[in-house]
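Question (not urgent): is this output format expected?
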Amino acid sequence: MFNRRPQCAEGRVASLGAVEGQRVARGQVLAWLDAPEVGHAAADVLRARARATVAARKLARQLDLEKQEATSKNAVDDARAEDQIARADLVAARTLLSTLGGEEPPAGAEAQASLVSVRVPVRSPIAGVVAQRDAALGAPVSPDRTLFRIVGAARATVLARVPETSAEPAPGAVASLHARGGGASCPATVDGSLGVVDEATRTVALRLEPDASCTWLVPGGYVDVAFSTTPAGAAPQLVVPREAIVDVRGVPSVFVVGPMPEQFVLHAVRPGPGAGPEVVVESGVDEGDRVVVAGALLLKGELLRAELEGS
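Got this back:
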């Protein structure tokens, strides 16, 4: 998801056109601001435009006189320099007005009327949903204040941080996303690395593209990320649910269902690296073995109790 915060010029909120939860299109007006600063910038554009018009006319007259050999070369050069300066000032004035979010006043008599009340639109930078509205009618605003928070749901991106000492998954590597506290999960693909080590956490940020099934992701939320430890082209590895592995006398172990009813055999295993709800098991179990998950801790307690009673 993308989070965007439309910025604004300094002024006051004149009207509001969007509420929280509303879907908006890119460029849609969210609010209008009364911005005196923009009015001054618009007036500067009018003055610069008038000077540019006069300078252009002077240059045209000097060029006509030059053809008739009725003026001096210095006069033509002065008129050309004045025209260039006037056009440069107009470009600068227009740039400032555009930066403040204002629109250039129309030409002619309508220009003066447009300066009576200069209103600036606050537009949505992306298509999405208004997740937060901090604007209030009549409230003062400034360029460093956020009025709206727009969440675009068209595309989701996850940033995963891995220790700088860990092997960095290559683009295209498969990962799985898991909701904090368990529950929802979905696959994702590594899009690439930001290539910068965070000085505070000593981690590298990876950008992941979630699968279309990751509809449960919410902007700003946290997820657990598990990367596949199987290299491309390698044989599949055995995995077991993390809850199935219990520590028995300091040895990672699982209980495998035996051939007889209610028979469970303890197997010492060697877990591989990784995080998430499933663990790669490098040895100790074979493909097809049925391991106990929900009752593993209960079986461990029964085993230790039986050992104590028999000692």
